[in-house]
Amino acid sequence: MSTVLDPADYSRQLDAKVARLRDLLAPFDAPEPAVFDSPREHYRLRAEFRLWRQDGQRHYAMFAPGEKHVPILIEDFPIASLRINELMPKLKSAWQGNAALSNKLFQVEFLTTLAGDAMVTLCYHRPLDEHWQAAAEQLASELSVSIIGRSKGKRVVIGRDFAVEKLDVAGRTFSYQQPEGAFTQPNGTVNQKMLNWAYEALGERQDDLLELYCGNGNFTLPLATRVRKVLATEISKTSVNAALNNLADNQVDNVTLVRLSAEELTEALNEVRPFRRLQGIDLKSYEFGSVFVDPPRAGMDPDTCELTRRFDNILYISCNPETLAANIAQLHDTHRIERCALFDQFPYTHHMESGVLLVRR
Questions:
Q1: Please, are residues 244 and 236 in contact by the beta-carbon 8 Å criterion?
Q2: Which residue, among 24, 29, 34, 13, has the nearest Cα to 324 in the 3D structure?
Q3: Which of 110, 224, 113, 210 is nearest to 169 (CA)?
Q4: Cα dihedral angle (301, 304, 305, 308), rounded to 10 degrees?
Q5: How many CB atoms lie under 10 A from the CB of residue 200?
Q6: At residue 275, what are phi and psi to the nearest 5 degrees?
Q7: What's the pLDDT score for residue 1?
Q8: Do residues 193 and 219 touch, judged by C-beta distance below 8 A?
Q9: Phi first, then psi: what are they for 41, rounded to 5°?
Q10: What's the burial of 351, exposed, middle or buried (CB within 10 Å: 0-12/13-18/19+)?
Q11: Catalytic residues
Q12: Crossing angle for the helix pair 10-25 and 321-331, nearest 10 degrees?
């Protein structure tokens, strides 16, 4: 079975999302949103499949929400990148022809990049031995990919445990390590549009930027070129390590990165309690004019939202327009929406990514 999309219906679906965002932001006198569309096909750079045994073979499979026992067997996947679609049949042929690769294989994950890099994770219900290692090394060479083998309590890396992405922002190319298992933006083309919008919205500034939820430095790298210096926070160790590598690889040297949650940083800035991870960092030396936030779906908690009120400019990227609207409602008495945008990261779904620039009244 092939996944069926209707690119002809794309414009109607996008218009519906624009109308929804417009309605959510209408109480705040928002300007008309800038709209950044997606490629109609082959836009998703990562994909995850369970494997389903049928007729003596393992097939790529997905399941409808709440339905664990009726698989949708997948032969090709039009929403996924061309690289993923190219790799899928080759990988399937490899495990069908090799018992060491197929034995108790239950899940396959692909991560690809606009730059052409690819990483495949193979997950097993058994220990990985030297026979698996030899077969996986040969396969990685044949497919020109990195392969990660996962079994209970063990991870085997063949090649690298990250994929390399390259994104162009305002005429400069930034290189990113995207680690296996860590969050990355799934739609690379729209992510690049999002980075350029944020770069323009922040503008050239002579003061400092606070960034919350910085991840692997996706926004940090280009935004750091717009300000004097950046204090960035992230709680995930994997993402922090990737961000530090990405800062070094791109020779961005005006960013201090600390492993704190947004809530912990709020306590530090409010001088509620000291944090050992902030030792040697003089928070009072920063002249923050702007804050950049890209929170999880739950949005900013009330205390973090109050923290952002201190800044003249709040640049906010959201993956949940409802929590975005709730946060704006909390800030609306002191800040107005100067710019807003819709980024169609997830075509053919109800999910939508949006951005706003809030400026002090």
A1: no
A2: 24
A3: 224
A4: -160
A5: 14
A6: -125, 130
A7: 39
A8: no
A9: -140, 160
A10: middle
A11: 319, 353
A12: 20
Whether pLDDT at 89 is above 90: yes
What is the pTM assigned to this prediction? 0.94
**Type of residue at 128:** L
| Vertex 313: Cα angle to 244 and 203 (nearest 5) | 70
**Sheet strand arrangement including 353-360:** 34-36, 335-343, 353-360, 313-318, 288-293, 208-212, 230-233, 255-258
The residues near 333 (Cβ < 8 Å, ≥ 6 apart) are: none
Phi and psi at 225, nearest 5°, equal -80, -5
Q: What single letter denotes the amino acid at residue 317?
A: I
Token pair in block for residue 178: 């995207």
Angle between helices 82-96 and 130-143 (to 10 degrees): 140
Q: How far apart are CA 36 and CA 317, in angstroms?
A: 14
Tokens 């009726």 belong to 70
- Residue 296 — left, alpha, or beta (φ > 0 → left; ψ -120 to 50 → alpha)? beta
What pLDDT score was predicted for residue 79?
95
pLDDT at residue 6 is higher than 90:
no
Residue 21 exposed, middle or buried by CB count within 10 Å (0-12, 13-18, 19+) = buried
User: Distance of alpha carbon 165 from its chain centroid, rounded?
Assistant: 12
Residue for token pair 């949006």 = 354
CA dihedral 50, 51, 53, 54 (to 10 degrees): 90
